[in-house]
Hints:
The protein folds into two domains: about 15-150, no CATH class; about 190-360, Histidine kinase-like ATPase, C-terminal domain (Heat Shock Protein 90). It is built from twelve helices and seven strands. The protein has helices at about 1-10, 15-40, 45-50, 50-70, 75-105, 110-115, 120-190, 195-215, 220-240, 265-280, 310-315, 320-335; strands at about 220, 245-250, 260, 285-290, 295-305, 340-345, 350-355. Strand 6 (about 340-345) and strand 7 (about 350-355) form a beta hairpin. The protein is rod-shaped, with a radius of gyration of 36 Å.
Amino acid sequence: MKRRFLEDVPTLQNLTFWHFQITGWLFFWCGDIFFIWLQHIDRGEIIAQSLDAPLGFTLALGLRQIYLRTDYKNISILRLLAYILFWSIVFTFAWHAVMTTTRYFLISPKIALYLWEINFTARWLSLTMPIWFGWSALYFGIKYWKDLDAEKKRARQAISLAHRAQLQMLRYQVNPHFLFNALNSVRALIDEDKKNAKTMITELSEFLRYSLVTRDHGEVTLEHELEAIRHYLSIEKKRFEDNLDISFDIDERAMQVPLLSFLIHPFVENAIKYGMKTSPMPLRIRIQASVMDDTLQLLISNTGTWLKGLTAAERSVHGTGTGLENVRARLENAYKNNYHLETRELDGWVEAALEIHRPTGER
């Protein structure tokens, strides 16, 4: 209940003109009432003085209508200050006139005439004109502040939309890349084993279903990502049979951690393509995932060595150019400095180690 109440309380940026208007004049009215309580004055003066703040509140609404028609964004600060000063003087006299009128009817005409004497009027002007000037300065100051805050929000939204568009574009490059390789695997098996080819097509359909289901989601859980990987590996396993050995070592705590969809696939695809060229048979592929503090740790390993000496064009033909470049671009867009990607060769294994730091509050 307390949390819901706090959520309903408007933030400073969400406060409207009416929040400031009512609060400000309410404080002014409370001050008036306090000074009335300190003085020994008759009933008419009490009523007249207690009406000063409500009358000021009403006049301020009229001043607001004038300011609403002011193109404050396209005039200089000096001109705006002069403009504010002019209307502050006008409304100081207007407030004085209204307050004098109430005293004329509630106290006596003599008091009202006294209030218009030059000495009292000058004193009144010096005391109350700063109130209207301050009200006006706050009005435009808050509008400038809200405009600046709205501009910052629009800028952040534009950057966010640009990043999302770039991530979506990169993802659309990845999906056809995997589809092309999966179809090649199916084509290779059709001539050898039609029954297994049918099973492979089922696995491929599940893989494509995952692509369709997650197309509008930037992130998925590791559990869903691994499910799609298993469909993909099932296709490759039927193709390579005993020449491919796959193992998973997944920490249960990592299963619900979110990450970019289709993020792990390029590493797995590379492990098969390059591993088949450099590893003794069977090619062993190992996929590991764990959580350490607030960091998701992924390790995709395959037996074999680096396939050296390939040009950029050859890497593209072999299916790795677009894939890994997109992975790095997607990581940079999504996680900035909160990730670390390293590829290495160690004791007959080629490893791709990825760490994604996800603070607890972001999960």
